[in-house]
Amino acid sequence: MKVDLTLLLIIFSVVFLIWNISLTFIIFSIKNKNKLFFDDGSKNLRDLVTRSINESKSINQRSAKIEDSIDSIAKIIKNSYQKFSLIRYNPFSDTGGDQSFSLALLDLSNNGFVFTSIHGRDVNRVYAKEIVAGKAKNNLSAEEDEVIKRAINEK
Fold first, then answer.
1. pLDDT tens-place string over residues 143-152
2. What residue spans define the domains of the chain?
């Protein structure tokens, strides 16, 4: 009977040792997985969640500021001159060279102006005409009309 008790005690000790080793590996495994969460110095899950909520609020505030900035930049861009075209020409047969020009500057809604400089022998005349939705209130020369069409079709 003494041998049976010793054998039983040895078996129990081996099972207990295997059980402890298994639990040790499980604990180290859990600890390594938790390092991902607690590597920033958080002591418990509550600290981690509180920090995450605060960071989320901060990110949301920065995101709102960025969206406001994007909206204001979009408004500025919409109203800035993005389409343009230039035509140089000679309106008179008695002068040399294409020293006269028409320049169209338009925004995305085709609003802007056409600027024309007519160069003559003794005089240089400059005109500026407002363009609204691609149309001018004033009469346009053929060159001014062409430069506006080119600016509108600019890609």
1. 999 999 999 9
2. 2-77, 83-153
